[in-house]
Sequence to fold (508 residues):
Amino acid sequence: MIDKDDFGPVTRSRRRATITSTKSESVKLRNGASAAAAAADSDPRSGHKAREYLAKNLQLNEENKRKCDRYDRMSCHKLQESMLSSASSFKNYRGILNWCVVMLVLSNARLFLENLLRYGILVDPIQVVSLFLKDPYSWPAACLVIVCNVFILVALYTERKLAMGSISEKVGLLIYIFNLTIILCFPMVVVLKLPSITPVGGAFALGIYTILFLKLYSYKDVNKWCRERTQAKARSLSRSLSCPSPPSTSSSMQSYVSYPGNLSLRDIYYFVFAPTLCYELNFPRSESIRMGFLLRRLFEMLLLTQLLVGLTQQWMVPIIRSSMKPLQEMDYTRMTERLLRLAVPNHLLWLIFFYSFFHSSMNFMAELLRFGDREFYRDWWNSETITYFWQNWNIPVHKWCLRHFYKPLLRRGAGKLLSQSAVFFASAFFHEYLVSVPLRMFRLWAFMGMMAQIPLAWLVSRFLRGNYGNAAVWLSLIIGQPIAVLMYVHDYYVTNHQDDLTITEDLL
Fold:
């Protein structure tokens, strides 16, 4: 019995021959029609027959064209690239992204269950209080924060005297140098000399003083710029120098102030609490407080803070405790394994901290104060270079560095490379200041980690592009931070808990 599939090649060859003959016939008909039209034009006596012949040819041509179109629609192949090929124009990979998220959730769920089976439930909210207080009746870090009001009032009093001409610019500069120096040195001495301040409480107080230092430095510069403009008898003060601009139609009800009308207690304290480091006489303001938005940000702050504490106690502390022995024995294989184990929870906590602080907390303060500029970060996750990451993940600090440090260096004749290196040096100093002083030990791991960003930025921008550069940025974030954490924890353990085999949350 003959299978009907055996007629496949014959059928296809016949179909191919039919299409070819049909096309050739259509060509012939078109040529014939053209010849008939030419004959009709040259011989009027045969025009009637030529027109009939032409109409018949046109009808046949249309029929043949419909047949060719039908056969073309039956074709199942065309010139195209595979979807995963780089030459393909396909861009929608959302399903692959969802698959990555599902795999990430499943992997971390397995690690979470393994952690519970091995260590049990380690989350204890009561122990969090001990990170800030050793004695419930003694609040040294909070008292240290309250004292910072003295430095705010000194800055305001100095600016008022400078505006009235009671003191010269040189005397005002000396007062500012003394005030800003004390802001950095006074809390450092208190944290180092007062044992009742815990590392976390000390870090919190030093963070507040560091922010105040940057804010008052900007306050000094902007008021000095406004004085220079006033002395030059300028009609209008440039917005780039943070001086008032004419009210827009959308905010015509907002009152604008000019120098020295900004030198008030209300103005400086608004700036102190505003989520920015760069001072302006007139900040952009929103029309009203959105209670729904405010409550959502408050809920996120409370939830994410609890999540950070719980993940630290349940996930980070056991890995850090188990890493002490390999570090002491210098077992590089086990050290690498502990480092990779620590990288995942450390990076997850960093991402939660970023969202909690730069989105939830800063938007909460901005909404509460009706502060209009909400650009606290940009798309740092798309960074293809190290430089782009540092310019976009912390916009308030980046704006301060650009306005009060980088551009003044350029105006004084410094090159771009030197100015960028100086910015990284200042950032490295403050990173080390906020880590080493609360821990009461100086190892320079944070300082060296920040300074290492300079050659790393050059290498990534020089040899890596596009997705490879983005992968290098993510790798530096995921691996670099756990290395610094392990170094500081190991040194803190050796210094304070070497004889204590049961390391507790004091390591944090």
Notes: The longest helix spans residues 291-329. The chain has 17 helices and no strands. Residues 1-30, 234-240, 242-253, 501-508 have pLDDT under 50 and may be disordered. The radius of gyration is 36 Å.
